[in-house]
Amino acid sequence: MANDEPKAESAHAHSNSDTGVSRRKILSSAGAVLASVRMATAEPAAAGPASDDDPHGIGVANQGATVAEFRSRIVQSGSSGETFIAYGYLTKLTGANDDDLFASQPPSESTALLTVYAEGALVKRVLDQNVHALDVEGEFAIFQRSGPGASFANVDSFHDGTEMARFAMTLQDMLAVFAPGRGIPTLTGDMRQITSERLVGTHRRVGRVGARTRLFATGLGTLVDPVTLNAQLEMAGNWTMS
Fold first, then answer.
1. Domain contains 53
2. Distance (Å, rounded) from C-alpha 133 to C-alpha 123?
């Protein structure tokens, strides 16, 4: 009998050990099941307010990428050539398709649906022999026409529509004169977007308020009046995210 008791205690201890392991397994499994039930029955987390803007807007790109391309005319007028009006149309805009840009083919001012119009004033002029530099400040806007019909013969037709975006701009015009009354203008400058609207009938905004872009354009300039320095320019260009 004396030899049997230790065996009994050992067996009892072994039985308790097995029971403890079994209980831990059961409690662990029960906890996992309970957690799963709680996750399945919990109310879903409240989502943030849905935006009514298409996340894939237009006129926005990564830094350094081209956002838009355009064709335009510029009229320089005033008693000393101090006033500038530019008007034209977009030939490309990031995120926009041909149906957004033109009512039909081929692309031209008469088929364009997204037109541009700008007004600026001369801030500084430096004249040299064959290369002149002008600093200009103003505002630039994009318009969505309800249909085609803009014409370079009618300046007002380029702001006949709904304004989609407006930019403040600071430009430098470098003019290389290659013949009497003829020159090659090169425009460079900065634009800061100050308004952004949705294209009519869509949730796609044009650009983003506060976005900064870099404009470049070149073309051909013709001096209209050598006394007042009035001129007309035909231009093509683009702007990139900066």
1. no
2. 11
